[in-house]
């Protein structure tokens, strides 16, 4: 595997921005999954079943989103 020597890809601010977006994106998906799971649990009186399901679904979507964000930087 060879490194891309494009000066545009060597900018540390760009790397910081990508890492920040990855963290915020993963956190938002997790929090939305938890929030939806909690609301569904309150509706069906099934605490904490849907909270756990919402957390797992939020993590899965967060990982999927992060993969989509970093794929262009890997060149795949």
UniProtKB/TrEMBL annotation:
Organism: Tepidibacillus decaturensis
Classification lineage: Bacteria, Bacillati, Bacillota, Bacilli, Bacillales
Keyword Membrane part of the UniProt annotation: yes
Highest taxon in the source lineage: Bacteria
InterPro entries for this protein: ATPase_put
Alphabetical keyword list: Membrane, Transmembrane, Transmembrane helix
Transmembrane stretches, start-end: 15-37, 49-70
Protein name: ATPase F0F1
């Amino acid at each position: 595997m060879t490194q891309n020597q494009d000066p545009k890809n060597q900018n540390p601010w760009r790397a910081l921005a990508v890492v920040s977006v990855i963290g915020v994106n993963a956190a938002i998906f997790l929090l939305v999954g938890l929030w939806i799971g909690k609301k569904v649990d309150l509706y069906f009186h099934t605490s904490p079943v849907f909270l756990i399901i919402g957390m797992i679904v939020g993590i899965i979507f967060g990982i999927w989103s992060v993969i989509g964000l970093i794929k262009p930087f890997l060149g795949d």
